[in-house]
Design goal:
The protein is an alpha/beta fold and 288 residues long. It folds into two domains: 176 residues, Nitrogenase molybdenum iron protein domain (Rossmann fold); 105 residues, 3-Layer(aba) Sandwich (Rossmann fold). 39% of the residues lie in helices and 11% in strands. The chain is built from ten helices and eight strands. The strands form two sheets. A four-stranded parallel beta sheet has the order 2-1-3-4, sandwiched between helices. Strands 6-5-7-8 form a four-stranded parallel beta sheet, with helices on both faces. It is globular. It comes from Oceanivirga miroungae. This is Periplasmic solute binding protein. Keywords: Signal.
């Protein structure tokens, strides 16, 4: 009888009545929404458009009332590559049963591990979190999240795996498009786009964005014998004007650090925001 009572007390800890999954950035939100399409799984971003990956999310989460998320089953994080990701820590305070799905780390399949590198020329040696700009990494992230979700929500397993297959094929087509880009070399002004440069297999040189002026931009390009500037931060108009006048190429890349607003509600995050950013980057790289 005593063993039976203990079993009955423990059982509720492992039974799930909620179908809520949480994210805290545009990338994981898009991945999770795409994988859970036409399922009973509810996906919410705790910030929506109220924060971004460059903000101090630890401080922001500390100020929020997270009790509304205490019934969540899982959080999707970037813990292994993003030092500032504190979503799991904060939700764990509300719910001891919460499951952490790190989209960049697989506990069951080493072949799915996302390839990460250190930041360029950084004394802090922090990991560059923007791993998905290498589209092969993005495919691995989809697989990691899908496999864990399929184990948690067994009734939706078939649909999750079907959605996974669709999205992997979609990324395959995107990889083919990216492979057709004619670009041999570029000067990178922001280190967050290094994964993209590596994926494109181009020769790249890093320069500090803050050191670039309208007076030195041409000298820098000519000294390096490179005609292309790539950056995730928009250049000043006077610099862009000089580049255009001298037939130099300026490519602005969106890393996905900032959320894209929903068309109908600016306070909500756009479900396919990452997909849109990747297509926009493709157009910019092709000069369309």
């Amino acid at each position: 009888m005593k063993k039976l009572l203990i079993s009955l007390l423990i059982l509720p800890i492992f039974s799930y009545s909620s179908n809520l999954v949480l994210t805290n950035n545009q990338v994981n939100y898009t991945i999770t929404k795409n994988l859970t399409k036409d399922t009973n799984i509810e996906v919410k971003d705790v910030f929506n458009t109220g924060s971004n990956m460059r903000a101090n999310q630890y401080k922001e989460l500390s100020k929020m009332d997270l009790s509304e998320f205490k019934e969540a089953i899982a959080v999707i994080t970037l813990d292994k590559v993003w030092d500032e990701d504190s979503l799991f820590e904060h939700i764990r305070r509300e719910n001891i049963r919460i499951i952490n799905i790190d989209a960049t780390y697989s506990y069951s399949d080493n072949t799915s591990l996302v390839i990460s590198t250190k930041k360029y020329n950084s004394n802090l040696a922090k990991i560059n979190p923007y791993v998905w700009l290498n589209l092969y990494n993005l495919q691995k992230m989809y697989k990691i999240v899908a496999m864990d979700l399929a184990k948690i929500f067994e009734s939706d397993k078939d649909k999750i795996l079907e959605n996974l297959d669709k999205n992997l094929k979609k990324i395959d087509n995107l990889i083919k498009e990216y492979s057709s880009i004619e670009l041999d070399s570029a000067i990178l002004l922001t280190e967050d786009i290094e994964y993209l440069a590596g994926f494109l297999n181009i020769y790249s040189i890093n320069k500090d964005y803050d050191d670039i002026t309208k007076d030195n931009i041409l000298n820098i390009l000519n000294d390096e014998q490179i005609d292309v500037i790539m950056t995730s931060k928009p250049l000043k108009r006077d610099i862009v004007k000089i580049l255009n006048k001298n037939n130099k190429k300026y490519i602005l890349i969106n890393t996905g650090a900032y959320p894209l607003e929903d068309d109908d509600d600016e306070d909500l995050m756009k479900e396919d925001g990452l997909d849109i950013y990747l297509l926009d980057n493709l157009k910019n790289l092709k000069g369309e």
